[in-house]
Write a structure and sequence with these properties.
The structure holds two protein chains of two kinds.
Chain A: E1 2-11, E2 14-24, E3 29-33, H1 40-47, E4 55-60, E5 63-64, H2 69-75, E6 76-79, H3 91-101, H4 106-119, H5 135-147, E7 153-157, H6 165-180, E8 184-189, H7 192-196, E9 201-206, E10 209-214, H8 216-223, E11 227-233, H9 238-246, E12 250-255, E13 262-267, H10 271-283, E14 288-293, H11 298-305
Parallel strand pairs in A: 3-8, 3-9, 6-7, 7-8
Antiparallel strand pairs in A: 1-2, 1-4, 4-5, 9-10, 11-13, 11-14, 12-13
Chain B: H1 3-8, H2 11-22, H3 24-51, H4 58-84, H5 87-93, H6 97-101, H7 107-128, H8 130-139, H9 144-171, H10 175-207, H11 219-224, H12 228-236, H13 242-248, H14 254-277, H15 281-290
Helix pairs in contact in B: 2-7, 3-4, 3-7, 4-7, 4-8, 4-9, 4-10, 4-12, 5-9, 7-9, 7-14, 9-10, 9-14
GO molecular function, one term (chain A): ATP hydrolysis activity
InterPro entries (chain A): AAA+_ATPase, ABC_transporter-like_ATP-bd, DrrA1/2-like_C, P-loop_NTPase
Domain ABC transporter (chain A): 2-232
């Protein structure tokens, strides 16, 4: 559905997007994650035919963005990260205007608009002036606007930025609805957890380059070289420390002075190695009370990998 | 939807008209404009009937017509840049342009409907002032043809200035810069051309002394055809600059040059605006292939 090939965008000597390659299948919700200025909006602008690439191409629905811009525009619904509204329009007039901009006949527009407003929970606002809506409502209205011509692909640039928690939850609910409608969605965020539960696939971008790609657990594996095992022992911890330090997969053992019974092992082995480790520990008479893997969330990993950018 | 229909019922045009005419400001400005025009006319008639011996003659009526037309031209020259120079850059500043550009609307249709919606308001002002011309007709002195020619002249001037405004609004990113540039161009057309005309006339007539009528230098004429005020005045008062042009050997009225010059300016400005509205994707991708 979306093919990005060697896409590069340069502004003078600054490279905003560096040889990006991506392939997104129909019906996939693809999350584009990266710190601010990593190249997410640049990619989206090129896909939305608003920016010409310096090198490389992108295809949407089989149409090349540079050559068949008109067909591409027909296939996409685009929600930019920052957008304005015509302040003297009412909600239904706003949608009607964009509907007619896509050449949808008047009678059809009249039928679609209430359905779209229902989808984004704005039915009771149909006669309100657009300018008087809250930020979250405007964001939802803009999403309804992007859907008016029933596009196959949705390009959503930071749709949840600037929203309060309740509005975020609502936005997520709508996106889940759209996912059920079998739309291909690419969505960007600089906050990783926001996307992890929603997306089938994720791409992490930094300095214009894709540094990780795959589903959530694959990303975790790609980005996380070692895990941390938490071991609680009873009584004397020193013997345990010596034992664990001898294991080839343990890179380091740390513990807190105040709580020496809780050991943190930096571990590089597989799950099978972990089983062997526990078995050996018991055979050697190490009084292990608990052994667990420290839960690292995606946000920690994200912070870790994007540290270089700061 | 047929092409013709989509041109006639254009969404952007529709939207602009709705938004512009919905505001109370538009209503007030038309009211004020008509009130001022009416007051000027009545004052003119009052002065002529009270203080001149022969009362309000057809000659006075003709003068009133010229005054009204000049007033309309002044209105067009000073208001059109303000109405059009923000047409595209204003959308950009309000962050609505990107969304508009991702719709199915062609660049041509966006630019043209922006132009027409901006000058439509001015046209309404002109049409609304038509009853004032009935005073002129009441006293004679001006033929209906002259009035029609005047309207055509004003319309062309409006279109051209509007197109220049739209072009700068598209090319220059900020409304304020586009507005200042458009007003700058207007100032040049109104004042700069006259200054250059006088200088060039001095030069040419100075060099060709004694051979008056045979110099055949068209430069002063070409400078003057870009001046809307002089061109308009000379159509009403055909003896204007007659002596100078006779010396240069030019016997073509100014409007003959003015009309094509302004049509070309309009078309050029619109073409640039349409081309620059969206990024030129094709040219760049070709370059990329070569590299």
């Amino acid at each position: 559905m979306i093919e990005i090939q060697n896409l590069t965008k340069r502004y003078g000597s600054f490279t905003a997007l560096d040889n990006l390659n991506l392939s997104i299948d129909k019906g996939t919700v693809f999350g584009f994650v990266g710190p601010n200025g990593a190249g997410k909006s640049t990619t989206f602008s090129i896909l939305a035919t608003l920016l010409s690439p310096s090198e490389g191409t992108a295809y949407i629905n089989g149409y090349e963005v540079a050559k068949d811009a008109k067909q591409v525009r027909k296939s996409i619904g685009y929600v930019p990260d920052f957008f304005g509204v015509y302040d003297q329009f009412k909600v239904h007039e706003y949608l009607d205007f964009y509907g007619s901009s896509y050449g949808i006949p008047s009678a059809e527009r009249k039928a679609i608009i209430p359905q779209l407003l229902e989808l984004v929970n704005l039915t009771e606002k149909i006669d309100s002036y657009v300018d008087l809506l809250s930020r979250g409502m405007k964001q939802r209205l803009c999403l309804a606007r992007a859907l008016i011509h029933d596009p196959e692909v949705l390009i959503l640039d930071e749709p949840a930025s600037g929203l309060d928690p309740r509005a975020r939850v609502e936005m997520r609910g709508i996106l889940k609805e759209l996912k059920k409608m079998d739309k291909t969605i690419i969505i960007s965020s600089h906050i990783l957890p926001e996307l992890s539960e929603l997306c089938d696939e994720l791409g992490v971008i930094e300095h214009g380059q894709l540094i990780a790609y795959g589903n959530v657990s694959q990303i975790e594996n790609q980005l996380q070289a070692q895990k941390v095992l938490l071991v609680t022992v009873k009584g004397d911890a020193e013997q345990a420390v010596t034992f664990f330090e001898e294991d080839p997969f343990v890179v380091g053992v740390n513990y807190d002075e105040e709580n020496p019974q809780l050991l943190q092992l930096s571990y590089q082995g597989t799950e099978d190695d972990q089983v062997t480790l526990l078995k050996q520990a018991i055979e050697h008479g190490i009084p292990v009370v608990t052994l667990s893997q420290k839960q690292t969330n995606l946000e920690d990993i994200f912070m870790e990998i994007t540290k270089g950018g700061e | 939807m047929s092409r013709l229909q989509s041109l006639m019922i254009n969404p952007v045009l529709n939207k602009e008209i709705k938004l512009r005419f919905r505001s109370f400001k538009s209503f007030i400005s038309i009211l004020l404009f008509l009130a001022i025009c009416g007051a000027v006319c009545l004052a003119f008639i009052y002065i002529e009937t009270q203080f001149s011996q022969d009362g309000f003659t057809s000659e006075d009526s003709r003068n009133l017509f010229m005054l009204l037309s000049m007033g309309q031209l002044g209105l067009i020259v000073f208001i059109t840049p303000g109405l059009t120079a923000g047409a595209i850059s204003g959308e950009r500043e309000k962050q609505t342009l990107n969304i508009l550009l991702t719709t199915q609307q062609s660049s041509t249709s966006i630019i043209l409907s922006k132009l027409f919606s901006s000058i439509l308001f001015l046209m309404l002002m002109l049409v609304a002032s038509l009853p004032l011309y009935s005073i002129v007709f009441l006293y004679g002195g001006v033929s209906p043809q002259t009035v029609l020619i005047m309207f055509g002249f004003l319309l062309l001037t409006m279109l051209t200035i509007g197109s220049i405004g739209i072009m700068f609004s598209t090319v220059l990113k900020k409304t304020i810069v586009a507005t200042i540039t458009t007003y700058g161009i207007m100032l040049f057309l109104l004042v700069g051309t006259i200054i250059l005309f006088v200088i060039s006339l001095q030069f040419i007539l100075g060099f060709s002394q004694g051979t008056a009528g045979q110099s055949n230098n068209m430069l002063p004429y070409f400078l003057l055809i870009f001046n809307p005020a002089v061109s308009m005045f000379s159509t009403l008062q055909s003896n204007m600059f007659m002596y100078e042009f006779d010396q240069l050997g030019i016997h073509v009225p100014l409007w003959v040059g003015y009309t094509p010059a302004y049509i070309i300016m309009t078309l050029l400005s619109l073409m640039i605006a349409i081309k620059k509205l969206r990024p030129s994707m094709k040219a760049k991708s070709k370059k990329a292939k070569k590299g």
